[in-house]
Fold these 2 entries.
Entry 1:
Amino acid sequence: MTAGNIFLDAAAHAGWYGLMMRSAGPQIRGGESVAFIRLGSRPVGSLDDAFDIMVAYDWVNFERFAAEVPLNGDSLVICDPAAGDIPEIVIAAGARIAELPLKDTAKGIAGGRSSMVGLGALSALISLPETALTETLDHLFKGKGEEILKANRLSAKAGRDAAQGLDMKRRLKIAEPAPKVERWNISGNEAAGLGAVRAGLRFVAAYPITPSTDMLEWLAPNLEKLGGVLVQAEDELASINMIIGGSFGGVPALTATSGPGLALMMESIGLAVASEVPVVIVNVMRGGPSTGIPTKSEQSDLNIAVYGLHGDAPHIVTAPNSVDDCLFATQWSMHLAEALQCPAIVLSDQALGQARMLIDRPADAAFVARRETITAEVKNYRRYALTASGVSPMAIPGVPNAEYVADGLEHTEDGKPSAQAEHHRQQLDKRQRKLTDHDFGRHWADIVGEGDTAIVTWGSSTDPVREAQARAAAEGVNTRLISIRLLLPAQTEKFHQAIKGVKRLLVVEQTHSGQFHRYLRAHYDLQGEVKVFKQPGPLPIRPGQIHDLLVNWK
């Protein structure tokens, strides 16, 4: 992935936007991998339908990734003749082949790297300014010694020179580079961590699990700078209970996990609901069930996030719809969890979490983690008082005469265990009222466009749909896009207002069983003719797939 990161940074130096997604084998131990990159003069959130150029350093285990690398007759494949026979699937795609001796070229340079030779060739083919790549290499290698820096610069130049002689049908050029401004190269996991920190996160307990571990690696040093703490727990059960304890002590707390870990946490998330302790769980989804496909993306944890708790357990479920939205959605979720004193599950996925995107510096959002507390002695303190909003002040341990029991048993207003029907109903109503009466504002969904055809989607499926919507509009097919960010509690009135006048509705999701469609049917009345596009991971949804459905829907 290092070569891909370098190339993305070079694109930023050139004033371009870009997206890099990644794919690796299932073994989670390094080895073969692929970096998918798309660049543009405007923000890029989705991969295209096919790749213009593929640089193959070797063909080892290429068949594992072939379905993720769509090629056509306009594609150019650069490969090393020393890598062996070109796979039949590449030849069958009709792609043009250009052989460059990447490894031999690197061997002719002291300390040369074939990866840098390939990057140099690629930079020439897309008209990336030479200074953009050299500036990036200078920044990356300046602290590693003059010899290493020189070797990488010479390797890149050798690749650039070699590519000048390639016979191409067309030279790729990104028109109108954006002005050089501050641009961030950030992953979805890093953005989620930053959003949580901006909100006030100060305690994290988590057990590493792909593909969420990157978030923990980013949080560990950055939390320390702010006086916060990250603890690597022995497992997911310990993680969720540690953050409940930390939050009970008054500190905004979070854990990050993936599907198998979320399944283990369910009982304790119910404890957080019953005891009204705010916590945030960032779940970076991957292919399931069980161990599934740890390194690939899927949206199949929706059911467990929404319905996985036993009993009537009101909680919040949100979903970022782009790499940069991981920042906002997580910051907002921290704010909501603290304000409403309940658990919030953030459903990201591998496609968002491990993707890197070149974005403009995000604006500062006003959402902070602030709960209603008491900090001074009060008389007759009732932790679970039946307030009009459902939110009751939470005493921080140590406040005189404000001791109370916070556990999973049903309780009275002052926290004493009770099995009486009246107390149970009162507390159920209280916990539900906090969420149903809260005004979540306009952030519950992103709604774009007009027309009597609506596309309803969520999470990482959104960016391919955005591009498909724009392509269809250019052909005179106008649609409205509804990307739901707040999955729970369902926003019934707002959704029905959003689809008012719709005659046709297309549901788009990355699951095998249609979990999102079933969620919509459970919570909303879907009007008009309804079609469902559902595709399981690990293959990403392509804009062309959705575009074709829209323009051919008669």
Entry 2:
Amino acid sequence: MTETTDVRSPRARRLFRDRREAGRVLAGLLTAYRGRDDVIVLGLARGGIPVAWEVAAALGAPLDAFIVRKLGAPGHEEFAAGALASGGRVVLNDDVVRGLRISPQQLRDIAEREGRELARRESVYRDGRPPVAVAGKTVILVDDGLATGASMLAAVQALRDAEPAHIVIAVPAAPESTCREFAGLVDDVVCATMPTPFRAVGESFWDFSQVSDEEVRTLLATPATRGEPGPTAVEAIRGAAIDAPAGVPPRAMLEELIGDARIVLIGESSHGTHEFYAARAEITRWLIEEKGFCAVAAEADWPDAYRVNRYVRGLGEDTDADAALSGFERFPAWMWRNTVVRDFVDWLRAHNERSGSPGRQAGFYGLDLYSLHRSMQAVISYLETMDPAAATRARRRYACFDHTGADDGQAYGYGAAFGAGPSCEREAIEQLVELQRNALSYAQRDGLTVADALFDALQNAHTVHNAEVYYRSMFSGRVTSWNLRDQHMAETLDALLAHLDHRIDAPGAPPARIVVWAHNSHVGDARATEMSGDGQLTLGQLVRQRYGDAARLMGFSTYSGTVTAASEWGGPAEHKVVRPALNGSIEELLHATGKAEFAVSTLAPSEATAALGAVRLNRAIGVIYQPATERQSHYFHARPADQFDAIIHIGTTRALEPLEVTSLWVSGQNPETYPSGL
């Protein structure tokens, strides 16, 4: 949740596995042209042909090649002085011609050479077949991407000589400026993605190997019109959707989805949506009661969550759930101090009271690392009881952090990173190592309570160490700090599983099973998102890699509604309107099914899984919502079928209610015309 600054140059964000996948994504954005007998797809050879074949196959349209040759500047062939298209149309880049002082004779020589190559390719590719007639047709020009757009411009100008009724340009990746330029030249432009900054078309692909002449010949000879087109993405998803009232799938679906998984990660696409929290809590109740899950591990700080854990297990001094949640004071408090979590904590306390044996109780734990100072205090408090001399040493080591304000980890990180304060890395490590070394002697006292207290202290010491590294890394790069945080979550989850396995160690006892509550951006597999190009990891990815089929990832989405969020970091909770999802997003696709509340499993191959496997925009609202910069602030590209094992969609959602409702939050519930009603 903490904001960080990335001071490094951004790396390429690869979105598409290859050109074929890019074509399937494009096809999903061109459904308005599907099944029409006046549509023809032309792929710019060679790179555009694999993309165009997928488009033509999905639309049920004829496919042909349109050949454009770049006119490389003499001695600087990487610069396009212009382009030559089928039919002999030449388009020049005047800036390059003037800048490199290319003479008319040089241009003629280049054009003649490229013209011979163009004629050769037309002969090879078509194998004697005549070009497809385009007069009076709607022609979709497809390439694997646009950079300067010179080749596409030559194609458009040459194509106009054939008098088509309409010209449409469709590409997987291009700069926004180039897409806008072409929007004024043709009838329709579909740019599936517009990476920023844009450096090269190939950076959007994992596999951008050169397309051979033989591959082009094979694709053009393979009929793209395969009878009646298959179902659209919307139809495929609608057919696979299972009704999930209030966002809770039926028990049969949950049984099939979860099976024997030890870890079930349940996400949320915002930190302030009532339905996400309520459905997740209801699913978790079922997992605890019917499937034997014994813990909830939340995207929350360890000390605050452990206070809740003590309450639900009948320990500590808190008398009700509200008091147990009062440790969540740091922004954004509403993430855990809200009515849904309060009610769940009350239920968990009652469930544990009914369970009898302490070893069978379900706990509530935190995975996050923002509790630098509170975790230090927890370590000292534990040692004061167990080993006063060790407590003195811990207090002396942790005093290194005293030059910053209480629980102000960012201030510590800034000072340590830029030399404005000491680094306390050595002290944090020394304290963790000493506590680990003495753990055996502390654990010799019998009883679950003693073992739990030691585990709590060890996790707090571990959190201090990782938080110290995290806060220093915040000022070296966003990806570095993000990865440290999610790696800490994964390490904490591993430690919690091992601890709970030990607690329930008995002949024939099943292994511990944990439910994780976190944002979609942590629960989803980063390898299915554009962030993987930056080297970003997620908890979901790490859990999948470590536990395989013993883990399940579930994500939530919504189309529109309201949300509890702040306008800036540290700001008050506001009741905000969530804008309808953008075109080309997974949320818009799910909304188009016309179903209000449903779930789709992506575990098994199916037409729906294939539809959800295409790259689409994906919305993520954290604790801050900035609708004025919706696209830039809250969307990224992802392949949902690879990101999650199941997706739950709730069409319209409402804001999560904080326990402390402010006048600002209440005012957001009123329509803009209140009280006049106009």
